[in-house]
Amino acid sequence: LRTYALTQLISTIALGVAAAPFGLIAVAWVSVLASYVALPFQLLMLRKALGLRPQDALRAIAAPLMASLAMGGGVWALMEMIRPHFTLVLIPIFICVVAGMGIYAILIYVISKEARTIVRHQLKAFRARFPAGA
Length: 134
Prior knowledge:
- The chain is mainly α.
- Helix content is 84%, strand content 0%.
- The protein contains five helices and no strands.
- It starts with a helix and ends in a 5-residue tail after the last helix.
- The model has no long low-confidence stretch (mean pLDDT 91).
């Protein structure tokens, strides 16, 4: 595992430096692509270290992956729509960050049974700690 982590660190730094002359977007894309290329190796390491089957690991990340991809698409579309209306770039970025958080929270709640269970437990604990009318 240590060898894999070190290899991933070195390759991430090297790819980031190689993509840097092409801008921040290029560095981000290289980082995302490198993560997907490394995924089969990560799954193999999980299998060797923990006995976790690849399909079980993929099933565990399916809902967050779908939610994050949809959120990314939604935030990108929102940025394209609102960016021309602002002179300061930080305002649409702030709007998109807040919108992205909301989009992701809604999507993960809708598509993940585990997320709904966590929310129900947290609400129950909150209500027990702060009862209405107290």
